[in-house]
Amino acid sequence: MNVGDNILKVRETIPEGVELVAVSKFHPNEAIMEAYEVGQRVFGESRATELKYKAVALPEDIQWHFIGHLQTNKVRMIMPFVSLIHSVDSERLLRLIDAEAARINKIVDVLLQVHVAQEETKFGFTPDELLQFVESGLIDELTNVRVVGVMGMATNTDDVNRITEDFKAINQTFKNARALLKENADFAHISMGMSDDYQLAIDNGSTMVRIGSTIFGYRQY
Q1: Ranges of each domain in the chain
Q2: Is the pLDDT of residue 121 over 70?
Q3: Closest of 73, 50, 82, 60 to residue 146, by C-alpha
Q4: Which one, out of 12, 31, 179, 202, has a CA that is 20 to 30 A from the CA of 39?
């Protein structure tokens, strides 16, 4: 599998204004460097220890995105290396990220995770919970976190209509939240869409797609 060629092919299918996050979790540094050599700089990891190991070993200009469920006891580990956390799913986690970023004098970007999928296993705020959270005013109190949008996943199904409805619901939640944050120009991103459904996600407003297996092949656990 030629990772560099795969990156170039995927880029041809993504319109201008949509960011490609190459999901490198469980893949070796050599594969990441193949993507790096054709200009990819944004990579997604879902395990704190793996992100730290790769960030220390690989070029400093890589932007590391944390895309998995983030445990509170792992926030300090990733904070020096991460540029965007996709998966903020509670007030407690957001406050901790803010405190850890302040501790090392860093500003970090985050996305609020919205749960619309028809599965109990996915984390995140329901759309109503997310809007209540935004209305609470906490975002304005943060000193070292920028809340820049939302992240969500569609139901794991082959039903295109179900996936489309999920993406529309994520987009609508983003629009409703942005209306509440009318003075906040940073709130501009929707992270949704993976290898199997990213075109549908883009059609429904995604500004950031997380693509792994199409680029790197299946994961090496």
Answers
A1: 3-214
A2: no
A3: 82
A4: 202
